[in-house]
Amino acid sequence: MASLRVQPGGRYIDCTVGGGGHAAAILEHSSPGGQLLGIDADPAAIAVARSRLEAHGRSVLLINDNFINLQAICIKYGFTPVHGILFDLGLSSLQLNGNGRGFSFQHDAPLDMRLNPNQELTAADIVNTFPEDEIARLLREYGEEADSYRIARHIVQQRPITTTLDLVTVIEQAVGGRRGKIHPATKTFQALRIAVNHELDNLELALKQAVDLLGYEGRLVVITYHSLEDRLVKQFMRREARDCLCPPGTPVCVCHHKAGLKLVTRKVVTPSLAETQSNPRSRSAKLRVAERIITAAEEQYGTLDLLGFAMGQGWRRPSQIERIRRTFLSVQVPTF
Questions:
Q1: 148-203: per-residue pLDDT in tens?
Q2: In a shared domain, residues 278 and 325
């Protein structure tokens, strides 16, 4: 809450509303007059959050969608500009505690791993139909798994694999038992979940949209849980806090990039020992914060106009936001 700098009457977005914990805190701190837009790709999470936040009435709007559509959602519902945007990445406790979609290897369930049950690709599709070298690539890139080729080879040899415990058995046969504190299946499950839900690609696109939606001095707060996410967020924030992205040695700037953020946390924020003891799942959490600044373009045209330029519409008058909003109301927002 301190990082978001929540203020009474502010407008905030929780891009991963989950069970509504952060959302409830934001609404409490932004009262009176605060508004919250909560987004989650998992319809089960939206149902839980809706029940938890019911008392806040019209102060909260919950949308079952992927945050890759963040900008389209905000325009459709007139939720621009905003004072703060939160991304709490990874899985929620609702998903880890055995919801029947195979996110955790501690519960036997079908190999699904879809955040949105309406999308087509499942973890079972990857495990049972992808070529060995492609499975190895996914485990190496998305799980940073050193034994990716060995695990991929055993997976292909043991097909079909239909449940989480079946996959755990195959992985243990490939690499042996527990290595230190990390279960041998941890990185493979992470890689499959990221691949199924296009998590890293969607995150990068959503972060770009978030910058354009923030008003002056609005805060972007991101909590990550593994090195791939944290590296992506760190590099994004640092890039957007620089005026020029040209390679070193370029005599004259040709990129014309202007900083839209300033870094609030130069170093990553991690949970205290007391927090990890009371909530063991927080032990890998890393928090980064950046603040929106005004660019030369915004000083001339204003935040709403910059939003239009980011969409490639080319309009310059804030009144045109209504025309774009009506368009979104008549077109179904795509899901990914």
A1: 999 999 999 999 999 999 999 999 999 976 666 788 999 999 999 999 999 999 99
A2: yes
β-bridge pairing 261-263 and 286-292: antiparallel
Contacts of 217 (CB under 8 A, 6+ apart): 291, 292, 293
**CATH at 137:** 1.10.150.170
Give the Å distances, CA to CA, from 172 to 34, 166, 176, 266, 327: 50, 10, 5, 40, 52
Same domain, 182 and 124: yes
Give every CB contact of residue 331 below 8 A, 6+ residues apart in sequence: none
Residues 257-291: tens digit of each pLDDT: 889 999 999 899 999 999 999 988 888 899 999 99
The total number of structural domains in the chain stands at 2
Query: CATH number for the domain including 42?
Result: 3.40.50.150
Measured between alpha carbons, how far is 40 from 75 in angstroms, rounded to an integer?
17
3-class DSSP state for residue 320?
helix
Kindly state the tokens that stand for 29.
Answer: 């701190």
* Host domain of residue 177: 99-197
Query: Which of 142, 177, 197 is the C-terminal boundary of a domain?
Result: 197
Give the global pTM: 0.83
C-beta of residue 49 within 8 angstroms of C-beta of residue 78: no
SS3 of residue 311 by DSSP: coil
* 116 and 206 inside one domain: no
Structural contact between residues 150 and 175, judged by C-beta atoms closer than 8 angstroms: yes
